[in-house]
Write a structure and sequence with these properties.
alpha/beta, 5-stranded parallel β-sheet, 2 domains, transcription regulation, phosphoprotein, 211 residues
């Protein structure tokens, strides 16, 4: 079972989505929170496989909650589920450590698919979010850390940007899964990021991804 914590200050949203998710054979909503502070506490207590996080909540918003969770639990997989696509919400949420970013207009089955994909190591971003990342201007004072990547590591980074899992990369490049994991670890280290999502964001910001 994929365990899920759902944080949203709208009770009807939590009830509707949680009911659908709990009806799935492979997903279980084990806790709900209506505030960012409660989300942090419950996340660290239950350590769910996936955290669904609303952005706008009273007392503590989803961005701060995401930041606090990731700081104390770097392996956390957080899916932002929100109505906002403006830059001051998207980038801070991803930079805080969110793994995926979806809109509340998404159907419940799409959220379930995102949960499964994120659990498997993929990063799910709304097309509008991907577009924003691709068109965001690169900061001139950022060091070109990717120049330290080997050709193989750059190849794997491009496949990561396509949303491929380690297993899919292994199958496509005909290399061992263990070898892929070593390359991914090296990529994160050289780019000075803490997860795959941040590595993909780096690739888009630096125009490394073929358009």
């Amino acid at each position: 079972m994929i365990t899920v914590l759902f944080a949203d200050d709208h009770e009807m949203v939590r009830i509707g989505v949680s009911a659908y998710l709990s009806a799935q054979k492979d997903i279980e909503v084990i806790a709900e929170a209506d505030d960012g502070g409660d989300a942090v506490e419950l996340a660290l207590e239950h350590r769910p496989d996936i955290i669904l996080m609303d952005l706008v909540m009273e007392e503590m918003d989803g961005i701060e909650a995401t930041k606090q969770i990731v700081e104390q639990w770097p392996e956390a997989k957080i899916i932002i589920v929100t109505s906002f696509l403006d830059d001051e919400k998207v980038y801070p949420a991803l930079e805080a450590g969110a793994t995926s970013y979806m809109l509340k207009t998404s159907k419940a089955e799409e959220i379930a698919k995102a949960i499964r994909a994120t659990y498997e190591g993929q990063s799910i971003l709304e097309p509008e979010v991907t577009g924003k990342i691709m068109t965001k201007m690169r900061k001139p004072d950022v060091k070109d850390l990717h120049e330290e990547l080997t050709n193989r590591e750059m190849e794997i980074l491009m496949l990561m940007a396509e949303g491929k899992t380690n297993q899919e990369i292994s199958d496509q490049l005909f290399i061992a899964l263990k070898t892929v994991k070593v390359h991914v670890s090296n990529i994160l280290g050289k780019l000075q990021v803490h997860d795959r999502t941040q590595a993909v964001i780096y690739a888009f910001k630096h125009d490394l991804v073929k358009k």
